[in-house]
Write a structure and sequence with these properties.
Blueprint (H helix, E strand, L loop, with lengths): L1 E10 L2 E7 L5 E5 L6 H13 L3 H4 L11 E8 L3 E8 L2 E5 L5 E2 L1 H7 L5 H8 E3 L11 H12 L6 H15 L8 H22 L3 H37 L1 H14 L12 H39 L3 H45 L3 H6 L6 H46 L3 H63 L6 H27 L11 H62 L11 H45 L9 H52 L5 H31 L2 H9 L4 H41 L3 H58 L4 E5 L8 E4 L4 E3 L5 H20 L6 E4 L7 H14 L5 E5 L2 H8 L5 E2 L3
Parallel strand pairs: 3-13, 3-14, 8-12, 12-13
Antiparallel strand pairs: 1-2, 1-4, 4-5, 5-6, 6-7, 9-10, 10-11
Length: 969
């Protein structure tokens, strides 16, 4: 399978974008960070496997309402077909025109999931650190899970079977079903024994309970009758004061006459009318006095008024006087402004050193300010650039001389080629001999450890097989199902096969052990000294190459400086031409530095503006003088008319005349309005007074009273009679609602003896207390008997408990059969898992070693898989072995890349899917990157690879292999 084209309708930042993968099996996609490389990878996975709605929202494009696209795939069996997925709708368009759904796509992908695809056919630089702590169990589980992809879900089945066994039975557990069922049967058996003993005593307890219940009911009836009698006497005792009040009220009512007439609510009505009448009379007197005062005020105000024509003239003169005063202030301000402008114009002409005639005659075009500012700014920039050129020239000269000195010093310290070759030969011979000896010692130690582990595993395998066989035989006998005898037979066969393989492995390994010893020709200290000399020489050569590159760079900088100097001279000549042109057009500029030209222009323009303002202010001042002269003539005419000297008329005098006039006119209108209102109020008051007086006379007439005192006396008698009647009626109602009908008449006519009633209450209370104590004791006995009977009923009878016991035993038998079946399946599956792991682990490690040799330029020749106690190991070309944590970070990254490529290659023999690499070599140096890219090109001959990178140099190296697309933001 390989990808042909990806057309994106909308996904994340990609909208209406197409990627073509047809020209080569190795496709490089270059883009800087945040360019959309990860989004494109997620789009490919989305097209193949889809995304749940919650994750799909994250890639919803901001400028498109659709999320999805089309992915065209070339399949050797089907041909070229297209997957079209929009939101959660998918169609597969086949070459013959048939459309298929998602179930067909899952079948073509051999059951592959997104997670499995990323674990086998994709990795990035962020995954490289995982190999440091990888043990044999982790590697085996990964290989087993990926080796079966597309065939079955055996890995998940194994986990389910193990969980199912744990759910059914554990030796010391309480939660598993069989453990729970055994505890349930034990509890039911105890209940069964207890129920059998209690069944005989239940009947006797029932008779005793009924007898005691009858006694309690009889005693309870008698107690209720005593309580009823006690409540009657207690009520009667509480009502004695009330009955005494009833008889007293009855005697007082007999004194009053039977028929008395009085107005309803007469006292309140009489008092209300009287209270309203008194203030009305007082108010009437006040209104009469006010009326006389208002008339007198109106007469006085009318005598103080002047003719209306006089006030009209005053208003006119007042307004004109105010305007003239403001005009005089303006005249003073204008004269002051003119004097200030004259001084400022004189000062400005002195500063710019030009005549007033030159200022008035000079006309500046609109662009002159911008031109002068450019000349000034250019002059500043040219000065700065000249200083910078001189400084750069000095720095370049100093740096070039420093590089020459360092180059001469390094040439004196570098060893010759013959010296280097001799030292390398001695170190290689020493490392070879030591590695052979160390390897022999490590192999012997590893063999001893491995042999002990194999013997322990053999012992535990035999013990486990025997225990499982006996346990399955016991369960088979317990459930009495002889068909299950096949289970122990299978367990014994599987265990025997495992024992046979373990013993053969021990015998084979013993045949491979050999011994050999060699002695190195130099000492360890000499070897370290030679290595240090070689490293220093290598570093000196690298430094020398860097200095030579830096010298070339400095020569290039010198050429750039010469070009900058030439351009500077051209700009300086052009600036001088513009300067001469402006000085010819405006001769006064010759005496001023170009840096101050814009400031000079502003001052000249400001002087021109001042001259214009002075002319305008003089025109306004002449107009104000003419208006003042005209008003003075009007004042002279008005003064003669009212016999006042012209010089004595002021704004304050005019204002006082007008204020007096306005105040008098306002008071006249106010008194006229008050007089009218006063007459209206007086008429209304007279009507109200008559109405209230008539009401008072009517109330006295209805009460047959001659005066006010007799009226209030009758009112008090009526009130007292009503209160007594209400009190008597209230007492009768309370007695009627509290006592029975047959005793009410007796209570209202006869007097009660309080002492006799209290004695009766005490006797009844003592009798009630004795009865309640007796019934309490009987209730305790009844509760005890009832508790015993309920316990017997809850525990159920013997037959029901026995039936329940048999049902639970049957459930236990079913669970035991289920446990035996799952245990057999789990054993068979474990054997299959070990077979798959052994098969694929060997192939993956072999291919990892091959790739690791290529990536390290054959510095390392073999890779050893991790064990349960050890990490990955590698063997160098000098036969020395190193664990993964002893390697450099770059070598660890190479090892992990080799492992991932090996897993992908092994799985590609069954399922060929494109390989996705996302900046997997970003931490490699240039040499390691070239080796890795060479390996990628070799793999790409048989398998399509999508190589994502943000490194421009990697993209350039792969450009010759047809870099198809550059991703830009």
């Amino acid at each position: 399978m390989r990808f042909v084209r990806a057309e994106i309708f909308g996904f994340g930042k990609w909208v209406d974008k197409t990627f073509d993968f047809t020209n080569n099996l190795l496709v490089c996609l270059y883009g800087e960070n945040e360019a959309g490389k990860s989004t494109l990878q997620q789009f490919i996975l989305f097209m193949l496997f889809g995304l749940p709605p919650r994750k799909r929202i994250f890639y919803q494009p901001k400028h498109s309402h659709r999320i999805g696209g089309m992915l065209t795939i070339d399949d050797k069996e089907i041909g070229v077909y297209t997957i079209k997925r929009v939101d959660d709708q998918l169609q597969c368009l086949l070459p013959n025109g048939v459309k298929q759904d998602e179930s067909w796509l899952r079948e073509r992908l051999k059951g592959m999931t997104s997670e499995t695809y990323m674990s086998i056919y994709a990795f990035s630089a962020s995954d490289l650190s995982e190999i440091r702590n990888m043990k044999s169990e982790q590697l085996s589980d990964v290989l087993f899970s990926v080796s079966l992809t597309g065939a079955t879900k055996i890995y998940q089945v194994e986990k389910k079977l193990e969980a199912k066994v744990g759910e059914l039975f554990k030796k010391t557990g309480r939660i598993p079903l069989i453990n729970k069922q055994l505890k349930t049967i034990e509890d039911i058996y105890i209940k069964l024994v207890k129920a059998k003993k209690q069944e005989a005593t239940y009947h006797d307890k029932k008779i005793e309970y009924d007898t005691l219940q009858a006694k309690i009911n009889k005693q309870q009836t008698y107690i209720e009758s005593v309580q009823e009698k006690l409540r009657y006497y207690e009520k009667l005792h509480d009502f004695i004061p009330l009955l005494n009040d009833y008889h007293e009220s009855k005697e007082k009512l007999s004194v009053f006459p039977e028929n008395m007439t009085f107005p309803e609510n007469g006292v309140n009505r009489y008092q209300t009318a009287k209270n309203k009448l008194i203030p009305l009379k007082s108010e009437r007197e006040i209104l009469r006095k006010n009326k006389q005062q208002y008339k007198e005020q109106l007469t006085s105000l009318a005598k103080e008024l002047y003719p209306d024509t006089v006030y009209d003239d005053v208003k006119f003169i007042f307004e004109e006087k105010q305007r003239d005063e403001k005009r005089q202030v303006e005249i003073d301000d204008k004269e002051s402004e003119l004097a200030h402008l004259h001084r400022e114009i004189k000062d400005q002409l002195h500063r710019v050193n030009v005549t007033i005639q030159e200022v008035e005659d000079t006309v500046f075009p609109f662009h002159v300010e911008e031109t002068w500012r450019e000349i000034r700014d250019t002059n500043i920039l040219l000065q700065q650039e000249a200083e910078q050129l001189a400084e750069d020239h000095e720095l370049i000269s100093q740096e070039f001389q420093r590089l020459i000195n360092e180059e001469e010093a390094l040439n004196r310290n570098i060893l010759s080629d013959n010296e280097i070759a001799d030292l390398e030969q001695k170190i290689k011979e020493y490392d070879f001999i030591r590695s052979v000896n160390d390897n022999r010692t490590e192999q012997q130690n590893n063999w001893d450890l491995w042999k002990r582990k194999q013997k322990n595993q053999l012992k535990w395998t035999i013990s486990g097989t025997v225990f499982s066989a006996f346990l399955s035989i016991f369960i088979t006998v317990f459930v009495q199902s002889y068909l299950l005898f096949i289970v122990p037979a299978i367990i014994i066969i599987v265990g025997g096969i495992q024992v046979y393989h373990l013993r053969n492995d021990i015998i084979e390994m013993e045949k491979r052990i050999k011994t050999s010893t060699m002695q190195p020709n130099i000492r360890k200290s000499e070897r370290e000294k030679y290595s240090k000399l070689l490293e220093e020489t290598k570093q000196f050569k690298n430094d020398l190459q860097a200095i030579q590159r830096e010298k070339k760079r400095m020569e290039l900088e010198k050429m750039k400086w010469d070009e900058r100097k030439r351009l500077f001279d051209q700009k300086e000549n052009k600036w001088v031409d513009r300067l001469n042109k402006e000085q010819h057009q405006y001769p006064f500029l010759s005496e001023t530095d170009p840096a101050h030209w814009p400031e000079l222009l502003q001052k000249i323009r400001h002087t021109q503006q001042l001259l214009l303002e002075r002319k305008e202010r003089q025109t306004e001042l002449d107009r104000l003088h003419e208006e003042h002269q005209l008003f003075s003539q009007q004042i002279e005419v008005f003064s003669k008319a009212i016999n006042i000297e012209t010089a004595s008329i002021t704004i304050k005098q005019l204002q006082e005349i007008l204020e007096i006039y306005k105040t008098n006119m306002r008071l006249i209108k106010q008194y006229e309005r008050l007089l009218e209102e006063n007459e209206t109020k007086e008429s209304d008051l007279q009507i109200k007074i008559k109405a209230y007086q008539d009401e008072l006379d009517e109330l006295l007439s209805v009460a047959n009273s001659v005066d006010e005192e007799d009226f209030y006396k009758k009112a008090r008698n009526i009130t007292e009679q009503e209160e007594l009647l209400q009190k008597k009626s209230s007492i009768e109602q309370r007695i009627t609602s509290t006592f029975p009908k047959e005793v009410i008449e007796m209570l209202l006519t006869e007097e009660m003896d309080p002492q006799q009633i209290e004695l009766t209450i005490v006797q009844l209370q003592e009798q009630l207390s004795s009865l309640q104590s007796s019934i309490t004791e009987m209730n305790k006995q009844l509760a005890a008997i009832e508790t015993e009977m309920k316990q017997m009923e809850v525990s159920e009878n013997y037959s029901k408990v026995k039936f329940h016991y048999q049902i639970e035993k049957d459930k236990l038998t079913q669970l035991a059969e289920e446990w035996a079946v799952v245990q057999v399946a789990l054993t068979a599956l474990s054997h299959a898992k070990r077979t798959y792991q052994k098969k694929y682990l060997t192939e993956v490690i072999r291919l990892t070693s091959t790739y690791f040799q290529i990536l390290t330029n054959h510095k390392y020749k073999q890779v050893f898989a991790p064990t349960s106690t050890k990490l990955f190991q590698v063997e160098a070309d000098n036969y020395m072995r190193y664990t993964v944590d002893e390697l450099s970070q770059g070598t660890i990254d190479q090892l992990y890349v080799s492992l991932r490529l090996a897993i992908s290659s092994v799985m590609s023999k069954k399922f060929i899917f494109p390989l996705i690499l996302d900046d997997a070599f970003v931490h490699f140096d240039d040499k390691r990157t070239d080796q890795a890219l060479h390996l990628v090109k070799e793999i790409a001959k048989n398998q399509q690879i999508l190589f994502f990178t943000c490194k421009k140099d990697i993209a350039d190296k792969l450009l010759a292999d047809h870099v198809l697309e550059e991703i830009n933001v």
